[in-house]
Design brief:
- The complex is a heterodimer of chains A (111) and B (113).
- Chain A is built from no helices and eleven strands.
- With 111 residues, chain A is mainly β.
- Chain A has one domain: Sandwich (Immunoglobulin-like).
- In chain A, β4 and β5 form a beta hairpin.
- Chain B is mainly β.
- Chain B has no helices and eleven strands.
- In chain B, the strands form two sheets. In chain B, strands 2, 4, 5, 6, 9, 10 and 11 form a seven-stranded mixed β-sheet that branches. Chain B has a four-stranded antiparallel β-sheet with strand order 1-3-8-7, with no helix packed on it.
- The radius of gyration of chain B is 13 Å and the shape is globular.
- Classes of the chains: A mainly beta (111), B mainly beta (113).
- Chains A and B meet through β5 of A and β5 and β10 of B.
């Protein structure tokens, strides 16, 4: 049973556009929602994370929007750049459980 | 500060062979874990450890074995390699189990023929 559903599987965005990746979860015990960014040939690295007591968190061009009632959260990349081309994973965790990852989104930002 | 170091980076095995994937971290993290990454499947947890001497199974543990004799090292053993174990393997560590940043190694690309 997939506990975190991520969409789309792949995404192509023009340079300067907004990239949006969505995730949904079922387990209401989840209380920490990180996003990881992975470049080809590298391991994932933490990009940004949010807790469910806030509806939005912004770090530079990256914003997480969180909708607790809908059990959904999303990553927005503003002014997308070719250097943002990577695979993005949403994840969730409850208390001291283990991280549950979505299946990933391959983002390509065309010049 | 090297972070999480995995060796080897690439490996080809024949079906039935055994091998050990090495993982070491120098951040004094208590929590370490192994994931496999397959196209369209995301990152799936194989085994994890909350400290030296303590290990537990993740989502896909069959065919793999782990031990944690020191805080720094967390090797993953393939007992009898099968083509279904062809994958990219990532080791990760974090300060503790729970809501803390996970640091990943660069991965081991394993092909079983």
């Amino acid at each position: 049973q997939q506990q975190v559903k991520q969409s789309p599987q792949s995404l192509i965005v023009q340079k300067g556009g907004i990239s949006i990746i969505n995730c949904a979860y079922e387990n209401t015990a989840f209380d920490y929602f990180p996003w990881y960014q992975q470049f080809p040939g590298k391991g994932p690295a933490l990009l940004i994370a949010i807790r469910p007591d806030v509806s939005e968190k912004k770090e530079g061009r990256f914003t997480i929007s969180f909708n607790k009632s809908a059990k959904q959260f999303s990553l927005h990349i503003m002014d997308s750049q070719p250097g943002d081309s990577a695979t993005y994973f949403c994840a969730a965790i409850s208390g001291y459980s283990t991280l549950t990852f979505g299946k990933g989104t391959m983002l390509l930002v065309s010049p | 500060n090297a972070g999480v170091t995995q060796t080897p980076k690439f490996q080809v095995l024949k079906t039935g062979q055994s091998m050990t994937l090495q993982c070491a971290q120098d951040m004094n993290h208590e929590y370490m874990s192994w994931y496999r990454q397959d196209p369209g499947m995301g990152l799936r947890l194989i085994h994890y450890s909350v400290g030296a001497g303590i290990t537990d199974q993740g989502e896909v543990p069959n065919g793999y074995n782990v031990s944690r004799s020191t805080t720094e090292d967390f090797p993953l053993r393939l007992l009898s390699a099968a083509p279904s174990q062809t994958s990219v393997y990532f080791c990760a560590s974090s300060y503790n189990r729970g809501p803390s940043e996970a640091f990943f190694g660069q991965g081991t690309r394993l092909t079983v023929v």
